[in-house]
What does this fold into?
Amino acid sequence: MILLLLTAGYAHAAAMDVEAPTARVALRAPLTTIVPLTLPSGGASHGIRIDATVVVPAGCDDVGIGAFVSDAHGQWFQALHPHPLSIGVNRIPLILDPYKPLASHPSMRSWTPAMAALVDRAGLFFYSATPGSAVDVSYRVRSLDETPAPAAYLADLAFPGSVATGDRWQLDCVPTPFPTNPFDPAEFDLTARIIAPDGAESVIPGFWWEPMRSSDRGDREDVTPDGSGRFSVRYRPRIAGAHRVILIARWGSGAAIERELAPIAVVGEPWDGFVRVDPDDRRFFTRAGRWYWPIGLNLRSPNDTRSRDKLETTLTPDRGTWSYHEFFARFAAAGIDATEVWMAPWNLGLEWNSGWAGFHGLGRYSQPNAWRLERVLDDALAHGIRVNLVIYNHGQASSASDREWQGSPYNVRHGGPIEHTTQFFTDPRALAIQERYRRYVVARYADHPAILGWKMWSEVNLTAVGSNSTEWHRHAAERWQALDPYDHPVTTHWSDNYLSADLSVVALPMIDFACIDAYFRRDMLAEVLVNSTVHPARGLARFGKPILVSEYGGAEFGAPHPQLAAEVSCAGFAALVSGHAGGPVFWWWEWVDQRNHWGPYGAIGRFIVGEDPRGAKAVSVRYVATGNGKELWCRAWRKPGNILGYVLDPEWGRSGLSDETFSGATIALGSVATGPMTVSWWDADRGVEIASAPIEHPGGELRLSMPAFRHHLAFKLHRR
It folds into this structure.
């Protein structure tokens, strides 16, 4: 069916009912003819009734009629009169009731009270195959009265009776009465209490979602609804045995249902595939009880215009989840097992002003983007990649840096509750809306093992948080931890480098790890990385938490290509020996991809195989290394019986331009206890061992002679 829209939008009538006098409507056969209606002031949230009077002239016996409603983005629902109109006068009642099924167009979507609340326009439509015809139309439109709520119940309740440890168990249902906003727990709240065989109890919030389908257009992704939505509860069991399930449903009217369901029969070995802060050495992460040192490259979004403008890369077509899939495949092949993804309104954010396609303002979450994020997490996990998920990008609460405040749904200009960015962090209404958002994100995604951490902000110091930073972070992080039954680490992030970090926020016990940038205009990256941890006044190692650099790459607007190549090559090794919790996450992902700088990720990954830097006595140390008559940059991560070291030509580290070969260089390790050891030397570009030798040390000063190298060299010293 081809639709011809004659106008768009509507204005509310002053009275409850809207009446229109008779008007002649020329039928644009064989196209469908639209007659826009003015919605009554009562709106359409409870439905509307249209009483149309249509006079059909002789010789026009194939005229059909229907009524439609639509949201601001063109999602259309219609009711069709079942028979062609008769010649003469026809009085046709058309009722669009939120609880009665309506056909949808252009995509398959459920017609619910939630969709009725988003109705932005309405109209009649006529269709006929007879050209040149016209009908006389008058109508009356009124809002349906709010009817007494039906008895509360949960329809289509379904869940599997058994599941394996580590797999997702999901319960689905559809509530009656249905909420006008399914994302507001005050209207309808679905929660499950799940009691594991060991007595541990998890409180799992439910959430509303709609199935989607995706098509790749080559230059963009189209995501459209693909069936009826539902409320769900997701749970991922970690131990075998019978798990009790108590389902609790509460409506805003006060109605409630609480029932214990059939237990879940969980089978399999104990499982814990989530990334966690190590309980014994809280400077590092673990996964499944083993040391996990993430090796990452940023993937904020499929492309970055700044990379195109500053580094002359080609802008990657934004094909949404299809782009992420292709990047993840290349990440995994290179040895990358971590990344960062932003929930920005222009990427995978769930909440923005209703003027943007797919968004419906505060408190109503974009289902296409919610589905996209789910698919990105699934794809990341399939490629062995963990995601540091950024909840808010700094522009959302900034009027100065990458400012997006003018489009924020929190802004009064878009129906939000606040006028200024500072109020985002202080206004009780804004804080309550953030809590609802947190709850939805946790309900939908927290069971996913691909989540590395909840990163509340990117570059929070570029927002208007100001002196409210400590209190806002305290409250927000406490709420993330309270809501998340899987205890994903919680973090926040500062721009520039370690000097920008708010130490009072880093010190908060509910901030599990700290994220910083490592941009600089002087010095060199290796020195910035070591100072991030051990600087006497500003180093972050004092807090005993994981430190992760989630952006670096020259200054904030890039650097000459040789310098960037040197930084990518040395970053992982320099971070390892400086006590960082993972490899620094390079910002310029399109530059790495298009210039084939993947090698350094595999190199550091191969170097750390079989190693474990954890331990109460493990510490970063500086050693004196010399070669060709000059001092080299040298640091190591030392623990009893083990040293992981790295030597760097500082001139190459600063500019990437030095090609000097060092022969006969040495490292002075100071006084070392007697005993047998083995030293192995590693090509830091390829991540392969190039030489090893046993050492029978009599005790005292120990000096190591290095093999010839260019640029940089890594080494291991183990006691036998």
